[in-house]
Structure formats: C-alpha cells, structure tokens
Amino acid sequence: MYKEATGTAWRVQSSNTTENVNKNKKLSLDVHKYPYYYAKFVCVHFGERKPKGTGERERPMALPCSCSASFTISYYSKKECYQLKKLNSIHEWHQPDVLLGPFYAINRRLDKDEQDEAFNFLAVQPNNGLLLDALRTSFGKNVQRRDLSNLRQKFKATNGDNNDLISVIKELQDVHGCSVEYAIGKENELEYLVFQTKYMRSILQLYPEILFIDSTYATNKLEMPLLQIMVKDCNGMGRPVGFAFLKRETQQHISSVLSIFREYQDQIKTVMVDKSWEEIDAIREVFPESAVLLCYFHAIVTFMEKIKELFRDRSEDEKERINTMAKSLVYSSSQEAFSECLTQLQEEAPELGDYIAANWLDIKPMWVKFFRHDLCTLGKTIINC
C-alpha cells in the first residue's frame, strides 16, 4: 500500500460515509468495500501545533508541524471504484521514512476484524510478551506495549467488565456511602472514576485551605493513572480527600475529576502540583481564584536531571556545585538573592542558565520561595505529605 511504501501516516480530515449516502439517497452501495463515499486524508503532521505553554517538555508529543500533504478520494459510480480527485504528495517540515512509518499510532491501530481476533488471544490471558508476538505476527503491525493497555480495556468492556464496574460503584455508594463520579466514553470504556468516602469529605470540610495533587502509576490491572488529592491536617499530617482513576491525564479529564471539589472553591486558597501543565490548566479552570504552586522536590529533581544531561563531561564535584546553585534559586528568600544566584549560574553554567530562562523564569512565582510569603502553604513545600 501507498503508506507502507512511502513511510507516511494519514488521518481523515473530512468525509461522508457510504452508509450515510445509502440512507439519504436510498442507494445500496457496499459499505464494507467502500466505507467512504467521499474522504479527504491529510498527513498526521498536517496543521499548526498549538502549545499550551513553553518548556513543559523537551520533546512535545504533538504531531502537527505545518505539513500540507493531502489527497481526496470519491466514489466513481460508473466504474464502481474510488477516484483520486486531488493530491499533494509533498511533505513539508518532516521527512517520511519507511522504517519509522509503521510506528505511528494510526498505523499500529487494529481494525475491527483484527481487534476481534485479538480478543481471542486475550481470552487465554497471555502475558504482554506473548501477546505482542502474536499480534505482530498475525497482523504485520508494529504493536507496542503502550497499545496493549487500550486493547485490554476494550476487551474487558466487551466481556462484561462494565457490569462489574457498575456493581462496584453501587457498593461504594449504597454500602459505604461514598460520593462517586464517573464517565463512560464512546467506545464503552471508562474515562474516569473519582470517589470520596464520608471520612474524606469530613476531613476536607475541616482542612480545605490547600490541596496537594499527585499521580501514581502501576496501581491497578487497567493500568490507569491514579490521581490522589490530599490535604494537611492540624498535626501536619497528609490526609487523602479523594482518589481518581483516569484513562488519560488530559486537562478535560482532570477538570472533570476536580469538579467534585468545586463547592469548596472559595475555601481552597492554594493547590500544589508537580510541573504538569494538564493539571495546572485544569486547576485554573476549576479553581480560578486559587494560587497554583509547584512542588519543590519535583522542581529540584527536574533541575538535577537537566544538569546530568547538559554536563556529562564535568566532574561530580562540579555537578554538585551546579546542583547547589540550582537549589539556591528555588530557596531564594528575596528578589535580590534570586537575581544574584541566577547571575552566578549563568556565568558558571550558561547552558543551565539559558534553560531556566527559557522554561522557568516566566513561572517563577510558582516555584521560588520568596513569592510564597503571603500565600497559604501551611509550611508545606512538597506534595508528598
């Protein structure tokens, strides 16, 4: 096929299905042989990238890069075939590669028949290694481990796991008196589930001033990230006030989860997170009056990882000295101390200075100590209560 031969990946930008045309025009075209009556396909790199911020990732997972490659097909009734109407085969700003083409998510995706056959494999509960080998051999697609989670969720939804989910939700609500919010997506998959026990609600009512939000992974068989929301009690101890399982850590999913706390938005003064822009944007949407702060630990760890990357050839003593300067930035108690430390860093480690200037200076009220003097933090600087 064309995409295999050229190493490209395409998605449908606009279309009219044959099924829809059959219904409206009372035709009887073969919908399996000709699923589209008309379709415009564009390169997966088509369109402009719309970043939400700067510096959140070194390698953004956004595909659009202003490529204009596209083609249009339509059903040709006289010869009962597809007709190529328009073609722009020039790919801009990226180079198609036959070796990389099979790794695009859209090229790895299983069609309906392949998915049904994959469900037969899952019925015998193979481990991930055996399942990958079976899928790649049977379908000739470069299925990755990250694809197996979605496949397993679809299999469990198709085979009645949603009934188990509903029974668990009813038990949480009716037996344990929990508040539960959840959403099922278009493909009958769980999008998110958030719950609070009566005790969690009572703790939140007592200590709503600051929320600590963090994600944990590899906690459940569905491999869904677990979002935990905590507060600090009168003894300085962290107390959970909500847990959520998310299919994806997008702003929309996190906003839906945080909405369960909306009734406390006038009392929540501060929310502390790691540097996840999805979480930050969701918090600002649900709690627009609350201050958003970054966890010191996550900020310092990010700097340390960057130092290891930028200064591989320097001695351990030099790296430790640069680490100390980076930590001093975080713990600066005044604007003067911050400026002095930044100047020293830019002189002695200009690569790190440039990185911080490009990615962190615009948000320094979120991570520099002296900006927190007038904010409610209850003395906490990290999200791990």
Gist?
The protein is 39% helix and 19% strand.
Characterise the protein shown here.
It is a single chain. The protein is α+β, with helices and mostly antiparallel strands. The longest helix has 15 residues, at 296-310. It has helices at residues 2-6, 18-25, 105-108, 112-122, 128-139, 145-158, 161-174, 198-206, 251-258, 277-286, 296-310, 316-330, 335-348, 350-359; strands spanning 10-17, 36-43, 70-76, 81-88, 179-184, 190-196, 210-216, 226-232, 238-246, 270-273, 291-294. It starts with a helix and ends in a 26-residue tail after the last helix. Helix 4 (112-122) packs antiparallel against helix 5 (128-139), helix 9 (251-258) packs across helix 10 and helix 12 runs antiparallel to helix 13 (335-348). The chain is built from 14 helices and 11 strands. Helix 10 links the parallel strand 10 and strand 11. A 7-stranded mixed β-sheet has the order 5-6-9-8-7-10-11, sandwiched between helices. It is globular.
